[in-house]
Amino acid sequence: MPKVLLKTMVAHCDKVLRTKEIGDYDDAANGLQVENCGTVSRIAATVDASLATVKLAVAARAELLIVHHGLFWNVRQPWTGKNYELFRLLAGNNLAVYSSHLPLDAHSKLGNNARLCAALGFRNLKPFFLTHGQTIGFKTRMTISRAELGKRLTQATGTEPCVVPGGGENCRHIGVVTGGAGGDLKQAADEGVDTFVTGEGPHWTFALAEELGLNVFYGGHYATETFGVKALAVHLSKKFRVPWSFLDHPTGL
Asked: Residue 229 gets which letter from DSSP?
């Protein structure tokens, strides 16, 4: 089985994803979060870095774990209890962790939004949803019934969406931002869409969607963000000729 230098793979990811150029939340820590002994012969991909998914990666004999939500959103100290167990598993099993949040959302080919749009059959995509200095989503013009769009989203994600029918029965201007963009319905409407596909949102957005005349599809935060890590792992597997696997650990959220 071929072995690839970890630093070579990381440099390639950083270049392709424009990791240093894409703005993000302060605690995102995009890029290599945990080193290993220096080589990679097997990749695993998952949405969330956690003790549970690290255990899955160890069982899969991976040496690099690609994630969308990394390890360091919150303070991880002291390194005792479950934190120590996590540290021991990573170090003891030569497992590196590479995380990409908004850079992976925004990528025009490998990103969560681009891949979900492709799975939904959307074409002629235009940049959509400005955040942290760049657009991360996409929008399209097409006529599709609200019911048909719900069926497509279910097929694409494997999860039946929660639909807020705030707009018309036919969708014509559709925006897609995976993950937790439900709190930004007004921004989506202000950017010209009558239908917004995202992952999750708070309770009060039901009333807001009705007031805005906006159809909203909550496809699940996890379910809408499996696409990017899979696409990145496939890309790395082809380029560096190493096997990969997806570690499914759904949250139901």
From this structure: H
Domain assignment present for residue 94? The answer is yes
pLDDT band at 178 (very low <50, low <70, confident <90, very high): very high
The whole model's pTM is what?
0.96
CATH number at 85 reads 3.40.1390.30
In a domain? residue 249: no
Q: State how far the alpha carbon of 199 is from the alpha carbons of 41, 54, 55, 226, in Å.
A: 33, 24, 26, 11
Query: What is the number of structural domains in the chain?
Result: 2
Same domain, 183 and 141: yes
CB-count burial class (<10 Å; 0-12, 13-18, 19+) for 125: middle
What is the C-alpha to C-alpha distance for residues 51 and 124, in angstroms, rounded to an integer? Answer: 40
- Residue 173: domain span: 106-221
d(Cα 188, Cα 195) in Å, to the nearest integer? 9
14-63 residue pLDDT tens: 999 999 999 999 999 999 999 999 999 999 999 999 999 999 999 999 99
Residue type, 77: Q
Report the distance separating Cα 244 and Cα 37, nearest Å.
19
Answer for the pair 225, 48: CB distance below 8 angstroms, yes or no.
no
232 is a domain residue: yes
Residue 253 covered by a domain:
no
